[in-house]
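Retry 2 of 3 after timeout on previous attempt. Resubmitting C-alpha cells to design endpoint.
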C-alpha cells in the first residue's frame, strides 16, 4: 500500500462503493498513505485536482470534494510528493 482510497461517503454519511452512483455534489474521501505528504484527489491520474489534504503515514486522511458535475468520475488519490497513485474509485454523479 502506497496510496489507498478506503471509502467515499456523501456529506450525510451514505457510503458510495466504487462503480456506484449518487446525485450528491459533495463527497468525502477517506484513505491511507505509507509515505506522509500532501494528497490530491483527482479525476484520473493526470486529471484536475478536486481537493487536497495533508496525510500522515499510518493515519487516515480525509478530503472533501465539492461542486461535482453530473458525470462519470475515476477518482484517484495521488501523493503530490512521490506521485504515487491509488487505484481508481469510479463514481457516476447523476
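Retry 2 succeeded. Sequence:
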Amino acid at each position: 500500500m502506497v496510496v489507498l482510497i478506503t471509502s467515499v461517503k456523501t456529506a450525510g454519511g451514505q457510503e458510495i462503493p466504487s462503480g456506484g452512483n449518487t446525485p450528491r455534489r459533495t463527497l468525502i474521501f477517506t484513505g491511507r498513505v505509507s509515505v506522509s505528504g500532501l494528497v490530491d484527489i483527482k479525476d484520473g491520474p493526470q486529471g484536475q485536482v478536486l481537493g487536497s489534504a495533508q496525510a500522515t503515514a499510518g493515519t487516515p486522511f480525509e478530503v472533501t470534494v465539492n461542486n461535482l458535475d453530473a458525470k462519470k468520475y475515476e477518482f484517484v488519490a495521488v501523493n503530490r510528493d512521490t506521485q504515487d497513485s491509488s487505484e481508481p474509485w469510479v463514481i457516476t454523479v447523476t
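Attempt log closed. The chain has no helices and eight strands.
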